[in-house]
Amino acid sequence: MSVAAKKPKRRPAAIAGWREHVHLPELGAGPLIAKLDSGALSASLHAENIQAYDKAGSAWVRFDVPADNERVKARCCDMPLHGERRVKNTGGTSESRFVIETEIRLGDEQWRAQVTLSDRTDMGVPMLLGRATIRGRFLVNPARSFLHSTNQRVKKVKPS
Questions:
Q1: What domains can you pick out in the chain, each with its CATH number?
Q2: pLDDT band at residue 157 under the 50/70/90 scheme
Q3: For residue 82, what are the contacts with CB-CB under 8 A and spacing of at least 6?
């Protein structure tokens, strides 16, 4: 007779607002406002000057990201290129985007996720977290914002 291994209990998903502050520790970025969007599949980060290159036989990508919500300062980042993905943008047009894998921190949660790089200048927020990125971690309350943020007041600044 064998004893079945018990699965570890997963804690219930936390309730998050439709906008939250996130940090990207590996990129040195944050806090950034992210829109939690269950209608989108993946995560997307505002990036400029995106260039793929070869580094010792491996594919890498260099790009600039906003350091924080002020978007005045940009950080130049170099990350291994995880791939390319065809994504439908908000206008419904399919486009190819570079994909990186990085740590995301929202409140007390921190996890690795694949993130596409895109110019989100006209999107209002520098990051979008889609359902595949937040699945099992957060339930989204569309009537609330910044439930996991220490700074409730956010100054909205147009990207440079």
A1: 14-141 (2.40.70.10)
A2: very low
A3: 99, 100, 101, 114
